[in-house]
Amino acid sequence: MYNFTNDYNETAHRDLLKAFSNTANQKLTGYGFDECCIKAKENIRKQLKSPSADIHFMSGGTITNLTAISHILKPYQAVIAADSGHVNVHETGAIEATGHKVLTVKTTDGKLTPELIEPILTFHCDEHMVQPKLVYISNTTELGTIYSKQELKKLYQFCQKNQLYLYLDGARLAMALAAKDNDLTFPDLAKYTDVFYIGGTKVGAFAGEALVFNDTTISQDFRFSMKQKGAILAKSWIVAVQINVLMQNNLYLELGLHSNNMAGKLKTIFENAGLTFAAKPQSNQLFVNFPNALAEKILNYYRVDKIGQTDSKYTCLRFCTSWATQDEEIKKFAKQFQKWIE
Amino acid sequence: MYNFTNDYNETAHRDLLKAFSNTANQKLTGYGFDECCIKAKENIRKQLKSPSADIHFMSGGTITNLTAISHILKPYQAVIAADSGHVNVHETGAIEATGHKVLTVKTTDGKLTPELIEPILTFHCDEHMVQPKLVYISNTTELGTIYSKQELKKLYQFCQKNQLYLYLDGARLAMALAAKDNDLTFPDLAKYTDVFYIGGTKVGAFAGEALVFNDTTISQDFRFSMKQKGAILAKSWIVAVQINVLMQNNLYLELGLHSNNMAGKLKTIFENAGLTFAAKPQSNQLFVNFPNALAEKILNYYRVDKIGQTDSKYTCLRFCTSWATQDEEIKKFAKQFQKWIE
Amino acid sequence: MYNFTNDYNETAHRDLLKAFSNTANQKLTGYGFDECCIKAKENIRKQLKSPSADIHFMSGGTITNLTAISHILKPYQAVIAADSGHVNVHETGAIEATGHKVLTVKTTDGKLTPELIEPILTFHCDEHMVQPKLVYISNTTELGTIYSKQELKKLYQFCQKNQLYLYLDGARLAMALAAKDNDLTFPDLAKYTDVFYIGGTKVGAFAGEALVFNDTTISQDFRFSMKQKGAILAKSWIVAVQINVLMQNNLYLELGLHSNNMAGKLKTIFENAGLTFAAKPQSNQLFVNFPNALAEKILNYYRVDKIGQTDSKYTCLRFCTSWATQDEEIKKFAKQFQKWIE
Amino acid sequence: MYNFTNDYNETAHRDLLKAFSNTANQKLTGYGFDECCIKAKENIRKQLKSPSADIHFMSGGTITNLTAISHILKPYQAVIAADSGHVNVHETGAIEATGHKVLTVKTTDGKLTPELIEPILTFHCDEHMVQPKLVYISNTTELGTIYSKQELKKLYQFCQKNQLYLYLDGARLAMALAAKDNDLTFPDLAKYTDVFYIGGTKVGAFAGEALVFNDTTISQDFRFSMKQKGAILAKSWIVAVQINVLMQNNLYLELGLHSNNMAGKLKTIFENAGLTFAAKPQSNQLFVNFPNALAEKILNYYRVDKIGQTDSKYTCLRFCTSWATQDEEIKKFAKQFQKWIE
User: Fold this and answer.
1) Would you state the pLDDT for residue C63?
2) Residues in B touching D130 (Cβ below 8 Å)
3) Quick one: pLDDT at residue B2?
4) pLDDT for the residue numbered D321
5) Which of B215, C76, C260, C275 could be bridged to A224 by S-S, CB 3.0 to 4.6 A?
6) Segment D147-159 mean pLDDT
7) What's the rounded Cα separation, in Å, for the pair C120 and C105?
8) Which has the closest alpha carbon to B105: B135, B77, B76?
């Protein structure tokens, strides 16, 4: 049975594994003070063209989000997110567990804009309500869509003007930056967000993300928060070496591109079959509306995520490809799919 | 300037003040173990026809909600509420500050039904999402509407079937039980909720509510939670004596009825003027749609809550009457209002 | 049976009751924006000679401590307290429930000094440990002892030098300021603490304390924290009018003095009987070491707190007098006691 | 410069690395539902002779402690620990950050006994204080000492009798079970604790611990807590494969034994030099009292932990060896040390 459920079903890309294995003969300092961490940070800062960025290596997305956000906010301050946002839906209330409300905005494409946020600011006008303080976005979004440079810049300027922090969840940042429609660069992320993370787990690492504070006034004492949340790995270098390889020779974007290209092939297949998408297909996730019977067939033979009913006749399924998806898998699926729709 | 902003702008009803003053000559045990508390609890249990109800005296609505709900839930469990619910909007994230997410449902009348809750249960199917566990309702609702006996019973049975707790916020319970359309009784509340509170602050008490656990399996050790949240008053009897008077000779319902009747007179005035309501007027809160210019005038001369724009031409204002509103106030307003609309 | 258990067993002093009753004919704005609150704050600021003090009316000691401390600290910061401190022992982990560790120091007299705190600062040197940030003291202390002006000043200067906040719990501040050995004044408290509260519940109020921020950089947005913790009373004036009366015509200190004097009479009785004290008797609490048999007798006839065994032969009991203790009660006890020890 | 600071300064044992690398060619299910996880759990259950044990793979010690303990306790319940306990000192208030107080007992050897715990239970008698509910111990302790079977059994029986849960932190469990004085086995841990973890990070794994619930009534819904705390690794198998290898062919105990043996050689060197130990040397950590000047010399040439002053003349240093410490390192140190003390 083939599998387009997710992009974290294979251990790690061979280049990362090799770099990881090479650490086996060294004696390294614990808790992130080793040479691998230092080197990886320098490399990231260079890519970001941001010599003062404050960088921390984390073991996964949820712990990165909750540790950073709870560090930044005061107890009565809240997060603004799309209602489809990962922190709102798929982290079992991790933000709330640290004491903070997540205020949500309905969106059709998973993206936030100043226009969508404005009413929340207007509404929350006194101390009987939480104080909105941090805008959470992800790129790619939960729906696989991406932010353009213009969109991100406008959002950041709006946040600046309204004393809001802008946090970008980069679990699938590689896919965003490698998307055909993308015009964002790493230095843009350093310029137009207060804090973001470079996701590794979904881009060829066996675990690990690099959290980057562009605004270092909010990262003071961050290691205290990390330790308190259980987010400092004793052997932090195991993440650092992986991120370091990803950030060399364009590998990060290459893996993102491969993920997108594999989805692109599926997209062509579905378009040729006259199917529509619940969200604009821009990266490695496709949200496809299938006639119910066809969806059934697919679910019987493939592991893909069932998102829900589009309407009474159509079912929405998510196809997710990865850095490790092989041409062969797409071809076999195409062949099978062709039979079903004939 | 007259004032229809709220129902907590006068200290206390004279009967409560008198009973309160009478405690001044006694020496009483601290922390809720005194005779006033014991007597008041007995009285409440009698009214509820529920000899085993576990009752606690609290100083206000928000601290009652947060202490009870955080006591009942496990860290990963969530509250379900109407999006207009007090715990969702007007308690500055008090529930989230204790670690729990509030899941919301859009409603037109502020009321929850099994049909509205069902999709939340279906959606929250695994450990990547919070576990819905407690349904929060208020009666009257934030929009002044009320639950019928049939509605509450159906909701409770649905909760029982789905292992959900049903919590009823009774900040304005007197107005609900005294409403013309009401068919609920105190014993019904004991039967068809797991926990609810009898609100005093908005019904003639200077402070205080009585929290009632019908399901005593969830109230075990509740005094630990009370102390931890700062909710045990050293002199708990100051609340108990007030609630006790309210629960005697039908005073609680009488004060609720008076509040409703005063609103009823305003309702007639507005209906005669051809105005519409944003929510069905059933109790002491009226949500009235005024032409923008008229709303302006009212806001200049009266203290009432501006809810927002109904549409481009109409503004929604809330009129709230209370146990202490006097006929004279209504008449003066009526006279003034008549001039404006002529 | 007579009762020296505590100083919160009678409703309220007659002057406070009278002022409270006088509010019954007014219509007042909710949530602390009424004229009574404004007037009481002005009065307090005048007594403190501190025109910029930021003052808030609270319903009790524990909720005051937890709301203020959790507002001031960042998630990884900790409180330093005497191991006998109220926040450490008798608030059911209220501080920890807001996420903060309480670091403790063993003391013989319940008082903190720079010398006692210094080792904690030295020890907590990196992010694997919490960051000590707020020093919690009470005056009088849990053991009934008091701080001299010199002691408080030194402690405050030490805190300033080490970027620590100094918080003073004034549940029994009246007794401290009225103690024979005292040389502190209200203006000293404004000068030598960052934040403190003027306790009412144990000094003739039926409920209520006035929280005073001297350092207003840490009180920004404090009303958000108050609302979130359920600490804003809808009818805040019920506290304000009481505190206002206490702060007029020296009543606060008079009630403190009366409490102390009553304890002073008990002290003489015990000294004459050759008994010793577990803590220096300076205010309205006496910690007396009784031979076990005598302690037994007392516990059979009086309600007093049993603190524990001083050693195998002696039992420590706490006698606590109050603003309402009457000469007659002392005399009757003296008579009975005399019989027992003859 | 040589290094006896810690036991987590090298990536991973070669057998674990090999097993890990072997996963690179598989497609595995995310979040702990893959075959590696299933197989590793079966293997652990077999070693524990406990077919019903509920096992979860975690990324590190602190996140294991905080996730498990916060899952088990109700909001007002507290942990009992030795004052030297890791959760009390070296986790930046992680337990308190989840809302729970840590009650501490002074010990000389880092070990808890019924006699030490009893007074805490007696003292915490009402709702003004937290409710002690979980006893936290570690084996080996923070001081490198170990629990005998008889000690653990007595402690567990005491906990059972007093409705306390017994939690054992096994960060260095291998060293405990491989200690010369040890008589505990894996099945004993299943019998005499409610929950414990098999530490990997300090025993040859690059990251990872296996948390074992023996009492499965307290592990219900544990994956919700894991997700909420950021403790579910997308690729959980990276921990599982390592733990699985450790639990095969006695490797876990072998690595523990090697760690202990290396420390044993240092112990002989120090004993021959007439030095004393601050805690009984039983495992891979030695707490040695050096004359101040000698301590200075060592600190200049070696990375070891300075614990503090034993007294004015002696300084306590911690030497920590590991599964990766080589004979050569010990020999070189011995040679150098010999020169210093001659």
Assistant:
1) 98
2) 224, 228
3) 61
4) 97
5) C76
6) 98
7) 8
8) B135
Across the beta sheet with A209-213, the strand order is A54-58, A209-213, A195-199, A165-169, A131-138, A77-82, A102-105
CA distance D81 to A231: 22
CA distance A92 to chain D (A): 5
| Confidence category of residue A217, pLDDT binned at 50, 70, 90 | very high
pLDDT at position A294 is: 97
| pLDDT range class, residue D190, cuts 50, 70, 90 | very high
Residue A2 pLDDT: 62
Reduced to 3 states, what is the DSSP secondary structure of residue C199? strand
Is there a contact between B5 and B325 (Cβ–Cβ < 8 Å)?
no
SS3 for B327?
A: helix
- Burial of residue D208 (CB within 10 Å: 0-12, 13-18, 19+) is buried
Candidates A325, A217, A322, A239; CA nearest to A61 is A239
C299: left (phi over 0), alpha (psi -120 to 50) or beta: alpha
Local confidence band at C137 (pLDDT 50, 70, 90 cut-offs): very high
Per 3-state DSSP, chain C is made up of helix, strand and coil in percentages (nearest 5) of 40, 20, 40
Per-residue pLDDT, A250: 95
pLDDT of D2 over the 80 cut? no
Nearest to A198 by CA among A85, A56, A3, A78: A56
Mean pLDDT per segment of 10 residues, for chain B of length 342 residues? 83 97 93 97 98 97 98 98 98 98 97 98 97 98 98 98 98 98 98 98 98 98 98 98 97 98 98 98 98 96 93 98 96 95 90
How many Å lie between the alpha carbon of C49 and the closest alpha carbon of chain A?
A: 29
Mean pLDDT of chain A: 97
Q: Which amino acid belongs to residue D149?
A: K
**Tokens of residue D55, six digits:** 């096992």
Angle at D80 between CA D78 and CA D84, to 5 degrees: 130
* C17 vs B21, B63, B233: nearest CB: B21
Name the CA radius of gyration of chain A, rounded.
20
C-alpha distances (whole Å) from C254 to each of A55, C140, C257 are: 59, 16, 5
**Residue B93 is nearest to which of A76, A92, A97, comparing CB atoms?**
A76
Condensed to tens digits (0 to 9), the pLDDT of residues C91-133 reads 999 999 999 999 999 999 999 999 999 999 999 999 999 999 9
Whether omega for the bond prior to residue B141 falls within 30 degrees of 0, making it cis, is no
Kindly calculate the radius of gyration of chain D based on its CA atoms and give it in whole angstroms.
Answer: 20
ipTM of this predicted structure: 0.97
A60 — contact with chain D (CB < 8 Å)?
yes
B314 Rama class: left (phi>0) / alpha (psi -120 to 50) / beta: beta
Query: Is the CB of residue A119 less than 8 Å away from at least one CB of chain B?
Result: no
Residue A322, CB half-sphere, CA atoms under 13 Å: how many?
A: 21
**Window 255-314 of B, Cβ < 8 Å to D:** none
Domains defined for chain A, CATH in brackets? 2-7+251-341 (3.90.1150.10), 14-246 (3.40.640.10)
Rounded Cα distance, C143 and C199, in Å: 17
Give CA–CA dist C18/C271, Å, rounded.
Answer: 39
Q: Pick from B8, B67, B237: which is nearest to C234 by CB? A: B8
Helix (H) or strand (E) holding B210: strand B209-213
Query: Cα–Cα distance between A245 and C112 in angstroms, integer?
Result: 53
Q: Find, among C18, C205, C24, the residue nearest to B9 by Cα.
A: C24
Q: Is D99 on the interface with A (CB under 8 A)?
A: no
pLDDT of residue C5: 87
- What is the predicted pLDDT for the residue at A75? 98
Helix (H, G, I), strand (E, B) or coil at A300: helix
Q: Are strands D165-169 and C314-320 parallel, antiparallel or unpaired?
A: unpaired
Q: According to the model, what pLDDT value does residue C2 have?
A: 61
